[in-house]
């Protein structure tokens, strides 16, 4: 339970910090080297800075992915887009029950450095959107702040 709360806090700390696009030349060599070693042959489409961390957006086996690294090159997590139908059934049921009128528009599988899996469901209604995080079994962990418009939405 304690690790789930710490994990959830980490996700929301990352998601609550507005990401800023950065040029590859602004990314520390340790981060670029760590990315190249971990994802050999993958090409970064875009780099972003989230607080003190760096996020590489890329395609891994034709799947939209992003990897987060600390400035010293330490890997933190991999987020990969999945079909909404690939979310655990209990996560989908939770969204349907608790967010009536919202659309489950995107989903992702997040794997942290230790291999722990969680899921993210993006809910939208008009211009509003927010993320809901679930553990590896589909149990609700936390809902992010609701945003409007296109800010922070990728």
> With helices defined by DSSP (H or I, 4 residues minimum), what is the helix count?
3
The top-level CATH class is Alpha Beta
Helix/strand-derived category reads alpha+beta
**Biggest sheet record:** 10 strands, antiparallel
Q: What is the beta-strand fraction?
A: 35-45%
Here the CATH topology equals Nuclear Transport Factor 2, Chain: A
Shape: globular
Number of self-contained structural domains? 1
- Unreliable stretches (pLDDT < 50, length at least 5) are 1-9, 11-17
Assembly classification: single chain
Provide mean pLDDT, rounded.
89
Distance between the termini: 30 Å
Order of helices and strands: HEHEEEEHEEEEE
Rg estimate, integer Å: 15 Å
Helix percent reads 10-25%
Q: What is the CATH architecture descriptor? A: Roll
Let me know the number of strands: 10
Structural commentary:
There is one protein chain. It is built from three helices and ten strands; from the N terminus they run αβαββββαβββββ. It is globular and about 45 Å long. β3 and β4 (63-69) form a beta hairpin. Helix content is 23%, strand content 43%. Strands 1, 2, 3, 4, 5, 6, 7, 8, 9 and 10 form a ten-stranded antiparallel β-sheet that branches. By secondary structure, it is α+β, with helices and mostly antiparallel strands. The protein has helices at residues 2-16, 29-38, 89-98; strands at residues 20-22, 44-50, 53-60, 63-69, 75-82, 103-112, 117-125, 128-135, 140-143, 147-148.
Brief overview:
This protein has helices spanning 2-16, 29-38, 89-98; strands at residues 20-22, 44-50, 53-60, 63-69, 75-82, 103-112, 117-125, 128-135, 140-143, 147-148. With 154 residues, the chain is of the alpha+beta class. The longest helix is centred in the first third of the chain and has 15 residues, at 2-16.
């Amino acid at each position: 339970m304690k690790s789930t709360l710490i994990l959830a806090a980490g996700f929301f700390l990352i998601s609550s910090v507005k990401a800023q696009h950065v040029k590859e030349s602004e990314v520390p060599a340790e981060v670029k080297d760590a990315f190249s070693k971990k994802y050999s042959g993958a090409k970064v489409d875009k780099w972003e800075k989230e607080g003190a961390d760096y996020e590489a957006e890329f395609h891994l086996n034709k799947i939209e992915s992003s990897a987060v690294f600390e400035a010293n090159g330490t890997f933190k997590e991999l987020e990969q887009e999945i079909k909404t139908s690939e979310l655990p059934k209990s996560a989908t049921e939770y969204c349907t029950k608790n967010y009536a009128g919202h659309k489950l528009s995107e989903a992702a599988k997040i794997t942290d450095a230790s291999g722990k899996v969680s899921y993210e469901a993006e809910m939208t209604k008009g211009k509003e959107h927010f993320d809901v995080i679930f553990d590896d079994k589909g149990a609700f962990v936390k809902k992010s702040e609701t945003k409007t418009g296109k800010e922070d939405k990728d």
